[in-house]
Amino acid sequence: MLLSKIAKELGLSFDGEDIEITGIHTLSEAGSVQISFFDNARYKDQLSQTRAAAVLCEERYALLLPKETRVLITDEPYLKLALASKLFAYNISTKTSTPSLGKNCDIDKSVVFGRNVVIGDDVIILANCYIGDDVTIKAGTLLHANVSIYHHCEVGQNCILHSGAVIGSDGFGFAHTKDGRHVKIYQNGNVIIGDDVEIGANCAIDRAVFGTTYIREGVKMDNLIQIGHNCDIGAYSLFAGQAGIAGSTKVGRNAVFGGQSATSGHLNIGDFVQVAGKSGVTKSLEGGKTYAGFPAVEHKEWLKNQAKLSSLLKKFKS
Amino acid sequence: MLLSKIAKELGLSFDGEDIEITGIHTLSEAGSVQISFFDNARYKDQLSQTRAAAVLCEERYALLLPKETRVLITDEPYLKLALASKLFAYNISTKTSTPSLGKNCDIDKSVVFGRNVVIGDDVIILANCYIGDDVTIKAGTLLHANVSIYHHCEVGQNCILHSGAVIGSDGFGFAHTKDGRHVKIYQNGNVIIGDDVEIGANCAIDRAVFGTTYIREGVKMDNLIQIGHNCDIGAYSLFAGQAGIAGSTKVGRNAVFGGQSATSGHLNIGDFVQVAGKSGVTKSLEGGKTYAGFPAVEHKEWLKNQAKLSSLLKKFKS
Amino acid sequence: MLLSKIAKELGLSFDGEDIEITGIHTLSEAGSVQISFFDNARYKDQLSQTRAAAVLCEERYALLLPKETRVLITDEPYLKLALASKLFAYNISTKTSTPSLGKNCDIDKSVVFGRNVVIGDDVIILANCYIGDDVTIKAGTLLHANVSIYHHCEVGQNCILHSGAVIGSDGFGFAHTKDGRHVKIYQNGNVIIGDDVEIGANCAIDRAVFGTTYIREGVKMDNLIQIGHNCDIGAYSLFAGQAGIAGSTKVGRNAVFGGQSATSGHLNIGDFVQVAGKSGVTKSLEGGKTYAGFPAVEHKEWLKNQAKLSSLLKKFKS
Predict the structure, then answer these.
(1) What three-state secondary structure class fits B25?
(2) How far is CA C247 from the centre of its chain?
(3) In this structure, is the dihedral angle defined by the CA atoms of residues B44, B48, B52 and B53, taken in order, positive or negative?
(4) Who has the most CB within 10 Å: A186, A224, B164, C216?
(5) CB under 8 Å to C187, separation ≥6 — which residues?
C-alpha cells in the first residue's frame, strides 16, 4: 500500500516522496519498505538507527530520525499504529485448497486445510484439526485431534501437538483511546516451532505482532501453557502445567519452568535457569541458577528468607 | 410445569393454589411464574420482598415470605433446588437446522449449527466450530476454528473469538448430600457477550445458573481465562493470560487484571481497578486503585510491606 | 517383543533366558512378562520384591534383584527406559470403524470414532468430538462439542464432559541426555473416569505413563484444570477453576481444591482435605483439615501467621 494512502487512512498529512509499504515493524527491525512507530522513550536511541521507510511519531522526535526517513507526525503514534496494523491484517477466510502432502501421511478426512499448506512426509493429523493458510508442517509430526494452527505458522519435524493446542492465535495487543476503548493491534506476525517440540493439551501459543514467536528445537510443554506474542523460547526448555510466559520475553536454552509459574513480559531469562512452581518472575534472570517466590529471587535466598520469616513469626508475641 | 408436579418430583407436600412454573431464579430476581429458594441467612431480608410464585425453604422461615407466596417446606432447600433445576434443564441434543444467515457471511462447511441460530451480516466462522441451539451471533464477528458456543448464548457485533474458546459451558454449582455426593444444579442461564469483545484461545466463559453471565462491550481477554457463572464483566475491562474470575463477581468498567490473577466469587470490583499479575483478590475492591498480592491489598501498601519485610529479614539474625 | 530384541534395540547386552515382553511398569507393579527399571534410590527396597521379568539398572544394584530376575545393565537406566517405552508405544492412526452403540444414543454425524469404541445406552455426543481407539463410554454420559478422548480411555456412566476437555493426553515425562536433550517416555497407560463425574471446559487429564490415571466416582471439576499422569483423584472431590494436580499425586475422597491451587507430584492428600484458592501444596497432607498458602500449611496457622506478620509490619519502622 502506498504510504500516501496509509497516511490518508490514518488521517495524517504526508507530502514526502511516496513509496509502496509492505508492512510494519519495530524501529530496530523495520526494513526499507516497512513503516515503524515511536511511542516509548525507552527506545529513543533506536530513532537514529532505524532503516524504516517511515515512522509514526510525535513532532518533537522527528528530528532524531535519519534524514532520509519519512515521518508521519501524530500526537498518538501508538493508536495510529493500531489503525495502521489493520491495513496490513491478513484477510481471514474459509477458502480451502488441497495441501501439498509428503509421502506416507495419514490425515483424517475431517481435517480442514486453508490454502497453500505444505505437509512433510509421515505426518499424522487426527480428526477435526484446522490448518490455516500458508502453514508448513514438517516430516514426522503428529497432531492429535482438535488442534488449531493459524495461518502462516510453521511446525518443525517430529513434533507432537496435543489436542486443543492452539498455535498462532493473536497476541494480546491494543492501543487505548482517551475515552478508554481498546483498538486492536493486528497481529501480523507468526509462530515458528522447531524440531522435536511437544506442545501439551490446550496450550495457547500466540503469534507475533510483527516478526515471529519462536519455540525452539526440543522444547517440551505440559498442558494449559500460555506463551505470549513475540516470545523466543530457547531450545530444550521445559514447561510444567499451567505455566505462562508474557509477551516478548526471551527464554534461554534448557530453562525449566515449574507448574503455574509465570514471567512478566520483555524479560531475558538466561540459559539453564530453573524457576520453581508458582513463582512469578518480574525481572530478567541470570542463567544457571534456580529461582523461586513472587517476586522471584534466587531459590537459596528464598529458602533462607522463608526460614527467617518462620523463625521471626515464632518468636513474635502479638 | 405445574407447581404441584414439581412438589411431587421433589417429594414435597404442596396443597396451595396450583400454578404453571416456567423456571427458577433467586429471591430477588424471581418473577411471578418462577420458583425460588432460601438457603443462606445472608439473603434473609429478601424473603419479604420476593415476587416468586413459590419458595423452597425451611419451615421456620416461611412466615417471613409475603402472604401470597406459596411455600415448599423442606429441610434441605439447596438440595431440592438442585433437583428442581433438572426439571427445567435444557434438553441437549444433536438436532440441527439451517441457521438464519445475514449477508456476506463466510461459514466453513464443517461448522455445526443447532436449531434456531441467527447469524448477522459479514460473520466469518472457521472450521469445526459448534454453535448451539438458539444462539445469536451479530454482524462482523469472527470465530476462529474449534470454538464452541453452547445453546442460548449471544455474541455481539465485531467480536473475535479465538480457537478453543468455550462460551456458555455449565457454571460450577452443586448441592451436597449428607453422605458427601454432589447433586448438579443445572445451569439454565446463558452468556451474553457485548460488541467489540475479543476472547482469547482456550478461554472458558460459564453460563449463568439463572439469568445471564455478561461480558460487556469492548472487553478484551487474553488466553486461558476462566469467567465463572453469573459474573458481570464491565465494559472495556482487560484480562491478561490465565486470569480467573470466580462466580457472581461483578467487575466494573475498564478494570485490568494481570496474568494469573484471580478473584473470589460474589465480589464487587470497582471501575478502573487494576490488579497486578498473580494477585488473589478476596474482598470487594474500591474503584480507581491498583491492588497486588494475596490477599490483595492496595499496591502501594503491598510495595511498602514488601520493602519493610525485606528490611526486617535483613536485620534479623536467626 | 522378545527381551533379546529389546536389549538389541537399546544397545545393551543380554544373554539370559529369552522371554516375550508385553510392556513396562514400575518395580512394584511390573508383572512376570513386563520389564522395569531402577533409577531412584528411594525405591531401592523394591528391588528385592519385584516380579518383573527383567530390570534396567546399574550394575551395582543388580545383586539386589531376585535371583530369577533378568538384568539389563546400563549406566543410564532412565534414558534406556525412555527408549524402551517407544517400543511399546501405541500406533496412533486415523483408522476408524463404526462404534458399538447402545440404545437411544444421540451422536452428531461429525463425531470421529477410532476402532473398537464401545458406547453405552443414552449417550449424547455433540459435534466435532474425537473418540480414540478402544475407548469405552458408559450409559447416560454427555459429551459437549469439541471434546477429545485419546485411545484406551474409559468414561463412566452419567458423566458430563464439557467442550474442549481433553482426556488421555500424554503425561509429561522425559529422560534427559547428557547434552540436555529430552527423550520422550511414551505414555502407554490410560485414564479411567468413574461414574457421575463432570469435567469442565478445556480441562486436560493426562494418561498414565504405565497403568492408569484415575478420576473416581462423583468427582466434579470446573474449567481449565490440569491433572497430571498417574494421579488418583478420590471420589467426590471438587476442583475449582484453573487448579492443577501434578503427576502421581493421590487425592483422597471429598477433597476440595480452590481456584488456581496446585500440588506438587507424588503427594498423598488425605480424605476431606480442603485447600484454599491459590495455595501451593508441596507436602503430603493429613485428611480432614483445611490448608492455605504457599508452601501450604494448616489454614488456621496461615491465618495466625498472616495476622502476626501484619502486626509485625505495622510496628516496624524501617
Answers:
(1) coil
(2) 6
(3) positive
(4) B164
(5) C170, C171, C173, C206, C207, C208, C209, C229
Out of A224, A312, A313, name the one closest to residue C204 (CB): A224
Q: Which residues contact A18 (CB under 8 A, 6 or more apart)?
A: A2, A3, A4
Contact between B233 and B248 (Cβ < 8 Å) = no
Evaluated on CA atoms A5, A11, A17, A19, the torsion sign reads: negative
Shortest CA distance from A307: residue in chain C: C295
Domain that holds residue B237: 100-299
CB-based contact (8 Å) between A160 and chain C? yes
Mean pLDDT of the residues in chain C: 97
3-state secondary structure labels for all residues of C72-87: EECCCHHHHHHHHHHH
C-alpha cell, B231: 459474573
Domain-embedded: residue C113: yes
Quick one: C108 and C76 in the same domain? no
Q: Is there a domain that residue B205 lies in?
A: yes
Instruction: Report whether B259 contacts A246 (CB < 8 A).
Output: yes
Check B181 against C218: CB less than 8 A apart.
yes
Of the candidates C130, C166, C308, the beta carbon closest to that of A318 is on C308
- Residue B229 known to be catalytic: yes
Q: Which of B45, B63, B87 is the last residue of a domain?
A: B87
- What is the least distance, in Å, from the CA of C221 to any CA of chain B? 8
Bridge-partner residues for B72, per DSSP? B56
Indicate the SS3 state at residue C44: helix
Averaged pLDDT for residues B20-30: 96
The pLDDT of residue C318? 57
Q: How many domains are there within chain A?
A: 2
Write out the DSSP string of A19-36: -B--EE--TTT--TTEEE
Distance CA B75, CA B112 (A): 44
CB-based contacts of A273, cutoff 8 Å, min separation 6: A251, A252, A255, A256, A285, A286, A287, A288, A289, A290, A291
Of all helices (H) and strands (E), which one includes residue C191? Answer: strand C190-193
CA dihedral B199, B204, B209, B211 (to 10 degrees): 0
Distances from the Cα of A68 to the Cα of A39, A52, B158, angstroms = 20, 10, 39
Q: Which one, of C309, B292, B45, C214, lies nearest residue A306 by Cα?
A: C309
The whole model's pTM is what?
0.97
The alpha carbon of B284 is separated from its chain's Cα centroid by a whole number of angstroms, namely: 18
Q: What is the C-alpha to C-alpha distance for residues A154 and A141, in angstroms, rounded to an integer?
A: 11
Same domain, C82 and C107: no
Report yes or no on A232 lying in a domain. Answer: yes
pLDDT tens-digit map of C52-105: 999 999 999 999 999 999 999 999 999 999 999 999 999 999 999 999 999 999
Mutate to test the interface with C, among B172, B177, B267, B316 (most CBs of C within 10 A): B172
**How many CB atoms are closer than 10 A to CB C115?**
15
What are the pLDDT digits (tens) for B193-229? 999 999 999 999 999 999 999 999 999 999 999 999 9
* Residue type for position C190: N
Among residues C225, C265, C257, the alpha carbon closest in space to that of C242 is found at C225
pLDDT tier, A287 (very low <50, low <70, confident <90, very high otherwise): very high
Q: Which of B304, B302, B271, B270 is nearest to B284 (CA)?
A: B270
| Chain A contact for C172 (CB, 8 A cutoff) | yes
CB B77 within 8 A of CB B62: no
ipTM: 0.97
∠ CA B197-A174-B229, nearest 5°, is 35
With respect to residue B304, please indicate whether it lies within any of the assigned structural domains.
no
Q: What is the dihedral of CA C146, C147, C152, C158, to 10 degrees?
A: -130
Q: C46 by DSSP, 3-state: which? A: helix
Angstrom CA distances, C142 to C125, C129, C162, stand at: 6, 11, 8
